[in-house]
Amino acid sequence: MIMFGHFVLLLALFGGAMTVEVLRPRGVPLSKRQFYEENKPFTCLDGTRTIPFDRINDDYCDCPDGSDEPGTAACPNGNFHCTNAGFRPGFIPSSRVNDGICDCCDTTDEYNSGADCQNTCRELGRKEKEELQKIAEIAKEGFMLKKQLIQEAKQGLEEKKSKLGDVQNSKKDLEANVEALRTVKETAEKPEKEAKERHLKAWEEQKAAIRMEKDKARTAEVFLELDDDSDGFVSVAELQSHPELDPDSDGSFTEAEAQGLLGGVDQVDTVAFETVWNNIKEKYVSESNADVPPPGETPQEETQDTTSDNDSENYPDEDIPEEEDNDDEEDDEDDDMDDGDYKAPPTMRTDEKKDEDDEGPMPPYDQETQALIDAAQKARDEFNEAEKSLREVEDQIRNLEKEISFDFGPSSEFAYLYSQCYELTTSEYVYRLCPFNKVSQKPKFGGSETSLGMWGKWAGPEDNIYSVMKYEHGTGCWQGPNRSTTVKLTCGKETIVTSTSEPSRCEYLMEFTSPAICQDPSSIDSGHPDHEEL
Amino acid sequence: MATFTERMGPVLLFWLGLCLSGTWAVDKGNFKTCDQSAFCKRQRAITPGESPYRALLETMELTNTKLTLQLINDNNKVRLLLELYRLQGNITRVKINELKPLKPRYEVPDVLIREPPTEPLSLLSQDENGVVLSLGAESQRVIVSARPFRLDIVEGRDVLMSLNSRGLLGFEHLRMRKDTFSYKVTSTVASVWDNIKRVFSSQADPEADNKEATDPPSQVETTKEEEEKVEDGMWEETFKSHTDSKPNGPSAVSLDFSLPGVEHVYGIPEHADTLKLKTTDSGDPYRLYNLDVFQYELYNPMALYGSVPVMLAHNAQRTTGIFWLNAAETWVDISSNTAGKTVFGKMLDYVQGSSETPQTDVRWISESGIIDVFLMLGPTPREVFSQYASLTGTQAFPPLASLGYHQCRWNYNDQEDVRAVDAGFDEHDIPYDFIWLDIEHTDGKRYFTWDPHKFASPKEMLQGLMDKKRKMVAIVDPHIKVDTNYKIHNEIRSRGFYIKNKDGADYEGWCWPGSAGYPDFTRPDMRAWWAGQFAYDQYEGSMENLYTWNDMNEPSVFNGPEVTMHKDALHGSWEHRDVHNLYGFYVQMATAQGLIERSGGVERPFVLTRAFFAGSQRLGAVWTGDNAAEWDHLKISIPMCLSLGLVGISFCGADVGGFFKSPSSELLVRWYQTGAYQPFFRAHAHLDTPRREPWLFGPENTALIREAVRQRYTFLPYWYQLFYHAYQTGEPVMRPLWVEYPQDPATFALDDEFLLGRDLLVHPVTEEGARGVTAYLPGKDEVWFDIHTFQKHNGVQNLYIPVTMSSIPVFQRGGSIIPRKLRVRRSSACMEDDPYTLYVALDNRRTAEGELYIDDGHTFNFEKREFILRKFSFTNNVLSSVNLEPDAQFTTKSWVERIIILGASKPSKITLRTSDDQENQLEFDFDASMSVLTIRKPGMNVGADWTVTLQ
Description:
The structure holds 2 protein chains of 2 kinds. By secondary structure, chain A is an alpha+beta fold. Chain A has helices at 121-226, 236-240, 255-261, 270-280, 287-290, 298-306, 319-334, 350-353, 367-405; strands at residues 7-14, 18-25, 42-43, 50-51, 79-82, 90-93, 234-235, 267-268, 422-425, 429-434, 438-443, 450-458, 468-472, 484-491, 496-504, 507-514. Among the domains of chain A are: 19-118, no CATH class; 124-284, no CATH class; 415-523, Distorted Sandwich (Cation-dependent Mannose-6-phosphate Receptor, Chain A), CATH 2.70.130.10. In chain A, helix 1 runs antiparallel to helix 4 (270-280). Chain A is elongated, with a radius of gyration of 49 Å.
């Protein structure tokens, strides 16, 4: 078995001028040297037992706390101290001593493993110094910017507060205005309604008269058609020539049935026929139609088109949705207008005409009615306008109140991020961070945007809560949670998203630099290595 | 990865279709029941009774190596050829094929390590009812009964096993299709021609009629056969939207085995079920058909990813095994005459002197191929393992590092992620050896490639791991993206290596990359080409610390029947139906070969596979597939790995933490504690689960996980020695208690605890909120030492052990010596030269012994006898180390830093004597309360001869 030297001679620079030799067991930091007195019994640092001095670093674990073997891997819980002259000293678990892997930059952990380690402390120290300088510079400039931001935020806040006062005042005026206009509107709408109803009623009556006329003409026409022998009477036999009139539709139109239709008599004259007509109107097929010519001939189609009663049923089905579409478009266009038909009855669109009976369009409103309608509409418009303004002002107040009460950091230094958005483009996606609002992701080459979360809260550690933002409740993941994003803020001169990643499924991580997170350089350690050794 | 949804759109949709049809549990409707599998339904419809098969004794031929005999089915006159072999090592092989099949039937190649050597059979007696043959020197005989045909294997007066004793032998002979036009023409012409021939032959050859009686299959018989009825599903079968064209018609084989005196049967993995197999009378048979089962359900006989058609039967007197060598879809029915009986019922039988002996009856049904069955006659469990190993080989001896801890996740996102996780292990001081990359590391699921953005410089990444003496595994699945810009695809296609569909075009299925081809791994030339792809100059970005994982090799075909390949796909002249269960075996074989070849045959490979077959133990490790983060899944990992171990596959593990869903921290910790004592120790997680590296659950849980992983590493020397032993003997590393205590019926159904080798008994905590566990400590002369407290417990007892979250109940057997390495490093490679602590646990006779195996940990040089095998023994207060293999050569820097003797008494003096006759007094410490003697720093090299004497 191999015994290792218990002690190492360490050369250290002291105060930059004096050189001293410090002798102590391998792996023991200077601060604990006093516990390892040469050739005196050693008491484990946890006090559990005392062992002869030659058992320190003898590659056998005697102390439960591992304090007897800092320089070997014998104890599972030992700590090895690397001096790392030229860089930062540090501890590694003793289990990494002589495991063939270079851990300490001064190579002291691999003194017996054959690992080919190079002393990289100076190089590391130089790099770290440069790095720290860079960070310090950034912090310095960043902090200047931050002070500016704080100033601006302060100003902005005051402006917003005074604006809020103004807007709150104007809201009161607007409310009064809305109420006044509502009264005007209601007053104007009453006579309008009455006049419109009058007009409509007159038109209905007129329509009924026209319809009656037409029915009479039709009765006469049919009578002539039925009266085959032109004797002025429609007889049972003549009626029977129209099998479609068979009341029970059993295929045989008997005399008795025909007689029944004629009201129990053998024949009827024109006057009596009026009653009969009412009973057979639904079923009757005009004789001119019964003689159907081959389909496809234009004249026939025209005839059919002009045939009145059946027309509405003959509408091609596909017209209906089209009409609805047209209506929708119309609605969209009309959105700004009001619901009332204040104009003269709307001009019928061609395809709607078919719906109308032969009575023709409603005649325009008379001048007096139209005047009432116009007046009411004007009142409505003015009322709506006023209400809209009030709503806008209310929104404004809400937004202002929200912004004023928002937690923008201890000195509102993050306020400048409000209502801004920052983007980062990766090979596949464009990521968009809108602080205090939302995070989203959009494929670079087409595709819809995915929400990676809405503003949730500040979520940094207790002592630095403003270093992390959390966005939650984004688009749900298949079989997974809703997407969420953690935004880590670091000090930087510029405000930019520097990276994004998805460390766990649907949990995104964004790195974000901002001067607002920069700390006062004078308050932080300038980054000089901890010179415990010297 | 948000990209998952976008990129995997089509696949996802398909998965949605597959998976969203139900809850978390498997959608059983996606998989066939026996009733939905036409051949299973047909064969299962045959009920016990008199077999139509008759042995034609006059056709018997007995040569030095085998007996052959024709069987005839009296219903259809089809003749079968029975071959019976006596194999070396107490194995009887029974082969049954059609005497003259219409075309050859598939016989499984490559699974047996060689043509098994035979022993002579001798005829003891013969009459018109049958023959009796002697099975070698023992008093074993095989009795062949003629009418009906049956085989009985008898030892002394005991029947060990009977074949076709229930008359369930079924052999669907190949036939011409008769319900089609072409058949009718052929058969008509044939029968006319038959008649003509008959007329002429009877004129020309007066003996023709005579001849017909013995010359099979004569035309008369064929004609009769043609009258058999055609059933649904014989020539075509549809399941869900998939139609199986079955151009060869019915071809199933089945046979029953009776096991008198047996109440416990085991094996036939892979099923998520108890260790002791259940009877199947009231449900489906156990199914063996390699399938990618999404979110599998526990405690049922459904098929899973792998199949090993080997069943072990055990009672207090004897262990036997049945190895049914058939790679087609297979169903196994088990029934028992005692299964339905309660304990009271059994007692009543006993009291009343019921003469009925317990018996288990088994029936195997396969869709095609032949009957080729190996009856392994034990009589001890060890002998059955060795018999099976003599047929299919032993466990591959894995690289030492692969016995360490593996950190896996679907997926580590990029190189930075890998670096950060690697650093996390150092920061939290948890050892690990392998970090794994799942499918997302590839360039668009093109295996052998790297994502150009996320893994732009794989060698840099691998070098970073190598600098820490750690390794990586990257996934290589067998489905190959159909993409003419993908070299692997182009080469496979141009070489004609793809499996073909029934029409002869390259088979295409849907898998991770979208449309994919499936290389025909049954072809040796394909496997050789595939192996070549692992060469360092072929597999870009690979290095010697990159190993391989074969997933989806059932094969998984998202849009195929039962999520696998169409059975009428073609592997050359064979149908996929014939070879299905072999596919994954061949994939792993070709991959392992590739890893061997890339190092010029020097380095041992490590390949993990999900699908497997008999013989897969020779190729690497398996895991139990896509389990879930549920307590029951933790529990089932024990019987699942025990069942695999019994049939040779020792290197088994379950995804620690559970693949699907997210474990509670308690479950995760318990799973680490269990996994640390199971052979393959890997944490894995689904893409959609939150991250779960060991340090993400608070410092307390991190500490618990660290401790579990560290315990694993301290036992690495023992694990390594167990695997060496498994490699040598085929004995399972993780084994059921009954293997070591075969006469103790209390152990026969235990599957909540297990043994590692002979010497460690593990009863992991697998209950949520457990306050204690009850461990059965076997062996009436045994003592067991708690490895943590050194408390001694006597066997036999049910020991209640109170537990806290840090408890992992593990016991070392008195009488054993276990070498451990207590210095826990970052990875196993860092521990190479570390010293050993010997744990000497004394038995009641104050003796103990154990072994230690050491080699370089990763090459095949041990085959050149470059290793150390020591035997430690403690008797008469002397602990000594002797060389078990004096002609083997290896040197180690490792020394003995500590000897801990459990159950010791206090000595006055301890002396070390080394081989150069030097004597040294050793210091020691004695803990009287636990009787633990700790000898401080004896310091001798572990490879040397020495003695330590206690006075």
